[in-house]
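Journal club side-thread
Mid-discussion, someone asked how the predicted structure for our own chain would compare to the paper's figures. Pasting it here so we can look after the session.
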Amino acid sequence: MAAAFVKYEVPKELTDKIYEAIQMANSTGKVRKGVNEATKSVERGISKLVIMAEDVTPEEILMHIPVICDEKKIAFTYVPSKAELGKAAGLEVSTGAVSIDEEGSAKKNVSDIVSKISALKK
């Protein structure tokens, strides 16, 4: 069963593209790592895309992020693994959420992901 904060299902192809976009943005743009940093980025309105791991426990840690993202009209999506999310963000540990603040060379990927996410939400 999906976590309570998960609002829609993300297909495998899109998940792979999300990990790739995080890696590209981490090396050429700016990625904030961790739930607290992602939350600050959204609250300040500088985030372009927020990615959350579905396997975070307790779920309450991430339940506020989709709500504030909707308020600020910032795109958000999910990936299945916090370990893979951390690895894509260049960390040696897992992380529950990341925020892409500056896309760098991942600009096209991020805009593709955002448009596919909006289609999934409907």
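Post-session note: The chain has a mean pLDDT of 92.
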